[in-house]
Amino acid sequence: MKNWNFYNALFVRVLFVMMLFFFCVFLIYKTFYYNALLFGFFAAIMVFEMYYFIRSQLLFYDKTVLSILQNDFTANFSEENKKGNFKNLYLLYDTLKEKQHEQVSKEIIYRSILNSIDTAALILEKENDTWNIFIMNDCFSTLFKVPKVSHWKYLKNYLPSLCNEIEKVGFTELKTAISIKIEEKDLQTFMLQTSYTQTYNKEYFIILLDSIQRVIEKKEKEAWINLMKIISHELMNSLTPIRALSQNLLQIVDQEKLEEDDFDDIKSSISTIINRSDHLQVFVENYRKLAMLPTPDKQMTPINTLFEDCLRVMNPILKAENIELINDINSSRSVLIDKNQIEQVIINLITNSIFALKDKSEKKMFLTSYTENNRFFIVISDNGKGIDPEIKDKVFLPFFTTRKDGAGIGLTLSKNIIEAHGGYLSYQTDNDKTDFVICLI
Fold this sequence. Notes:
The protein is of the alpha+beta class and 441 residues long. Helix content is 55%, strand content 20%. The protein has twelve helices and twelve strands. The protein has a five-stranded antiparallel beta sheet with strand order 2-1-5-4-3. Helix 2 (33-69) packs parallel to helix 4, helix 10 runs parallel beside helix 11 and helix 11 (339-356) packs antiparallel against helix 12 (410-420). 16% of the residues are buried. The mean pLDDT is 78.
């Protein structure tokens, strides 16, 4: 750290002290004792001056280095030190100061982002063998009525159920539902998700909590918004031409004399109005099917019988479309279902697969089933074109369809039927295969 200016100054002082000492010895040799004493006195003064010079230099270095180690960048360098012996030290100090300010700015931004999200977030930092609270966002503090404490042991006094659940798994990654009592009120259910991360010499544990009720309400709101968009679109597609045609008819009949062409316009307009009205009637009927799905009339039904009846209906269509059906379902067991409703689901899924295979040269459809964890799974697969990533979130949306002749209720109705049975309907897709999975308990 020290540059040549310091060494030059030190060399001059050492040289001057040596010269004084040499003259002192020379005068003693010549028996000029008083003069020797005077030179010795000056030599002692120079030694003390050199000592304090070196000490002041080293103290400044130590003080500056200690400030850097303690992240204290409040000290100011004089212009002389910026250009003199401490030029390199100043450059180091200034560089680290800039990096610290940059780090503080980033931390403020990160905290602002965490405080602006609606999810309760808590970040723990491990020190020795104990966890301290590194960051608690505003949502966590407000939601659970917890002050921003700094230690895990203090948080346990406010949220023992949460802390005990995390300690039980040893601060490992976790994703589960948890019930938490807030200020002696009723238990509320939250989705708990945790993750562990480690930097160069620090360990962090991230805890995220989201109210299940709030998640459900958000999903319901999104579903209603999407549904209203579709209903509005369908209604406007029919009502707009009906209104325009009605106005045209009104103008025609207001004429004093009707020509032959006017009668043709009247017939054409009335025909279009009837077609659009029929379309609206079908749309409303489909909506009624979704909204008024009857409660399943469950009876024990053999699996083989269920599929035999479905394939009896669909086999002629499969043969006409040259689709190779690979049926691996051969189960002697029975399931408690509403046979008519489940048949409708299977026929809907097979029909969708037929449409997906329309443009394929080699058309294959697969039917499989298996039992796992007291659940019965039916898988209907095809090697068709798959589901585009752009519409993955819309396949179960009411009235959404990619088919020109489709009503857009098949998958929605199927999903509602399976959920009414206490199960679920899901799908997986890639470039080579699409699977629709029915899960029945």
